[in-house]
Write a structure and sequence with these properties.
It is built from 3 helices and no strands. It is mainly α and 97 residues long. It has a domain of 66 residues. Helix 1 packs across helix 3.
Length: 97
């Protein structure tokens, strides 16, 4: 288990070095929208009477806002990152640079 964590940590650190602050923040925001997971968790919580309807609605509403807002912010950050780093090299059909 520790090996897996270390490998993930190294991959995350390598990505952060490669992308920089804005690129990393943009990637994190694109991946942070978790509405399907929120809906599933709220459904399970309501079935077990652990979450009231009003709390569930609040959580789903917050998830909906994240789906709308995070990609917009991430797109702006990605555009700023792209202007800072210059043009991106195209990848050919084989996936090689």
């Amino acid at each position: 288990m520790r090996v897996v964590r270390r490998d993930r940590q190294r991959a995350g650190q390598a990505a952060a070095r490669e992308l920089g602050t804005r690129g990393t923040a943009s990637l994190a925001l694109f991946g942070a929208t978790g509405l399907p997971l929120i809906v599933a968790i709220v459904g399970i919580g309501q079935e077990r009477d652990a979450i009231s309807d009003s709390v569930g609605a609040s959580l789903i509403g917050a998830g909906m806002i994240s789906v709308l807002v995070y990609p917009l912010v991430a797109t702006r950050l990605a555009a700023r990152y792209a202007t800072e780093t210059g043009p991106v090299e195209p990848i050919d059909e084989t996936g090689e640079y």
